[in-house]
Structure to design on (70 residues):
């Protein structure tokens, strides 16, 4: 059920917006989720959510465009 909802979400985004814009939107969304996961006190989301985001990024070729911290 969740998989079909995610697929439908991506399909609608890809139909309505240029591919590069969709990648930027999803990168921003994933960055927000990654920040929330990093700020949470538990570790289960680190082990489940972050790998899932990385799989989605890899599959849809969505680079993580966070600025490098030096």
């Amino acid at each position: 059920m969740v998989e079909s909802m995610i697929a439908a979400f991506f399909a609608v985004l890809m139909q309505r917006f240029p591919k590069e814009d969709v990648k930027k939107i999803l990168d921003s969304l994933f960055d927000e989720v990654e920040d929330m996961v990093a700020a949470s006190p538990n570790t289960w989301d680190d082990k489940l959510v972050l790998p899932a985001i990385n799989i989605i990024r890899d599959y849809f070729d969505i680079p993580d465009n966070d600025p490098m911290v030096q």
About this structure: The mean pLDDT is 86. The longest helix spans residues 19-39. Helices lie at 2-16, 19-39, 44-60.
